[in-house]
Amino acid sequence: MKNIILIDRDQPAYKGNLHLHTTWSDGRLPAADVVEAFKAKGYHFISISDHDVYARTDEFDTADFITLPGTERGELNPVPDKNPGYHFGVLDDPTVEPELPRYGHLEQFPTPVPWVGEASPQLLIDELRAHGNLVVFNHPEWHLTRFDDMVKYDGFFAVEIYNHSTEWSAASSYGAAYWDHALQNGKRVFGIASDDSHTHEPDWKIPEYGGGWVRVQAEALTQTGLIRSLKAGRFYSSSGPEVRDLRVEDGELKIACSPCKFIMFKAFPQRGPFIGNFASGKPLTEASMVIEPDMTYIRVECVDFEGNVAWTNPVFVADLLD
Ligand SMILES: [Zn+2]
Ligand SMILES: [Zn+2]
């Protein structure tokens, strides 16, 4: 079995939020203020993902903070006015040569997107990709999307598995079951935690932003560096804990994390092991498991004492076999 390093304790990891809103759609603060709000929280990058308007904002980029061009496309709804419809996170991918022109700054998209039957979400995903974008299946739990959609539709590179705004406002934020459904049906997709923040009010006792993020290991803090790593799964998602190291070594998957109450190896189809601190009561900061050749994927969740979670991306066991 091959040895690989998924998260390297000796390499830099950049913190970012891939989903938020400004006054370009229904957010409360202008983009420049939102940039300052995230800088003040120690973030290295954000994507300004306003509803149905593209943001391409090099002017905010500095040596230690960048913005990734993108948008959130939506208003694609089989039942008008009865549910919020499909929303897709959209990130400009500079590593591909698109068939159609890239979207420009403040380019507006017509809404609603007409529903033309079950193929409608696929048509929208394909259109976004043709213009040189990565696509994220946003907040499936909040939308109450059908599990089957994870299998039926293709071309999204990630599922939004934690959306802080819908946890903060409606306790409906965890999409990891959708992610597992995709993975169990052979999809190679990653999990993304984000804020989906709209107000960015710094004084609220229960913050509406800074609650869900990704940590990306990249060679440099550039758009190309971050997107290349996102596409390769060289990142983890979190609402609190840190993943400090994740590697396959001598047939074992080994993780190191900030102090946690649980470290759970979600190995499919074997399910575990799930490790808790019941006996010692002490924080867990590392764990390992033996990888079996008949496992298809293994992902790890670390849960801290407040119930916050760090989610690693999956290790695909077939990739490890010689
Ligand atoms: Zn949305
Ligand atoms: Zn949103």
TrEMBL record:
Family annotation (InterPro entries): PHP_domain, Pol/His_phosphatase_N, Pol/histidinol_Pase-like
Domain Polymerase/histidinol phosphatase N-terminal residues, every copy: 16-77
Transmembrane segments: none
Family matches, as NCBIfam families: CehA_McbA_metalo
Protein name listed in UniProt: CehA/McbA family metallohydrolase
Organism whose genome encodes this protein: Paenibacillus artemisiicola
